[in-house]
Amino acid sequence: xxxxxxxxxxxxxxxxxxxxxxxxxxxxxxxxxxxxxxxxxxxxxxxxxxxxxxxxxxxxxxxxxxxxxxxxxxxxxxxxxxxxxxxxxxxxxxxxxxxxxxxxxxxxxxxxxxxxxxxxxxxxxxxxxxxxxxxxxxxxxxxxxxxxxxxxxxxxxxxxxxxxxxxxxxxxxxxxxxxxxxxxxxxxxxxxxxxxxxxxxxxxxxxxxxxxxxxxxxxxxxxxxxxxxxxxxxxxxxxxxxxxxxxxxxxxxxxxxxxxxxxxxxxxxxxxxxxxxxxxxxxxxxxxxxxxxxxxxxxxxxxxxxxxxxxxxxxxxxxxxxxxxxxxxxxxxxxxxxxxxxxxxxxxxxxxxxxxxxxxxxxxxxxxxxxxxxxxxxxxxxxxxxxxxxxxxxxxxxxxxxxxxxxxxxxxxxxxxxxxxxxxxxxxxxxxxxxxxxxxxxxxxxxxxxxxxxxxxxxxxxxxxxxxxxxxxxxxxxxxxxxxxxxxxxxxxxxxxxxxxxxxxxxxxxxxxxxxxxxxxxxxxxxxxxxxxxxxxxxxxxxxxxxxxxxxxxxxxxxxxxxx
Length: 564
What we know:
By secondary structure, the protein is mainly beta. Helix content is 7%, strand content 34%. The chain has helices at 13-29, 531-536, 540-553, and strands spanning 66-67, 74-78, 84-86, 103-106, 112-118, 121-126, 135-146, 156-158, 175-178, 188-196, 202-207, 218-220, 226-234, 236-238, 241-249, 254-264, 307-308, 313-317, 326-328, 336-337, 354-357, 360-364, 373-375, 384-395, 405-407, 422-427, 437-445, 451-456, 467-469, 476-483, 485-488, 494-504, 509-519. The strands form 9 sheets. Strands 8, 9, 11, 12, 14 and 15 form a 6-stranded antiparallel β-sheet that branches. The radius of gyration is 28 Å and the shape is elongated. Residues 1-15, 24-43, 274-298 and 556-564 have low confidence and may be disordered.
């Protein structure tokens, strides 16, 4: 049985963002009390040289108050809520970008900034959060469509009436599948798409929602074939459906779609698939191991604006609903500094301890065997997968399709076929800025004989193949995951964000489409934001952050040379 949707596509990214945040909050706060929203109590009582007065607002002005603790720490305990609050600075940029290693701050966008690296070789970074980061969640292989089986056509929520009597999809008529029973407001899916029972040559396109993009997901050259291809596709919205996939074909064929993984902001968005156990909620999780109570160290009280060496200082609050916390405020820069030390190793971190090392923020997890600290993912040490609208990067059959080529244009024949033993360099300008990789699809057409092609991003030519064909006149597709590299021309011009393609043994037309990017922050996927928005809208802080992330992501070891 199918359900007809509301008539218009529903593009509400803000609502999807809020729903993803709500899912993450629900998963991490189940069973916990709701903290009251309160301001800082009292007025400024302590000034530089004075003692820290508990329960009031203390203002040290421009002075820095330092606790020199060695391996001891400042323990902040609040049995009813958060023990530490980092207050966003109104003018965090650009001062915080030049702060010393170990700085932790909350920027005006509400994200946690960490100055990582070694002193003198600092790296700006932002911790991943479920607000904007993504994670891939593998699921039990699940068939979400088989147009040959009426029971497996139940996911179709639009376009079911356009199928032919046997269930084949018909040319030019999209169908929309709902995955709402599998994921709540998902970003994208990974899986496999198969075509079978086709009546002639054609191609299939899979995308989220809206107008059909000019890309192909799987291609076939004759009737009677059975072909499959890896599928990574952005999920869209349609009416009340929040996670949909649209499929359209150019020639009648049956279509099978199998799901193996979902891209989400938080794992709690994935519904149990295939009878597997649902993830345990926060309420069902084992309570965290609390460290043994620490007595307040003897000696003088903490003095603002001076260096303090009290050993272990404990601040304890039992205020209802976590109303009383220690808030660190600095409107002109960093709000917290965790001093970096080359002698500080992972095994030194006790449970609940935060430290900044060479690769970013480290968190003590309290394990008694092996490593007892975990590195937090951030824009300085990890990349995430971001889905993008399906985008054609290369089609050697037309001049427009060759516009991104930096190398190889002169080795394409009059039919648009790349000659054998040719290197192509494709530049992803206006798609990504300082990305680490891409996902998509490569297609070869009009082959002259058996051969293969290799797609890669950096270094010399690998001894691997990305797509293979065995005779002349073939039309074949394959999914591709590749690094991105850099390319320097003979004249010395350097281009980041390129992908290399090398054909061997056979000439063929080559088509490359992108559906996803591996980046350090979604802002690097510039194809998702119009140029006018990137240059005119948003705060100076947002633009400064984007520049810092992209510059940190640029590396000198990613060149792809023409003589590879």
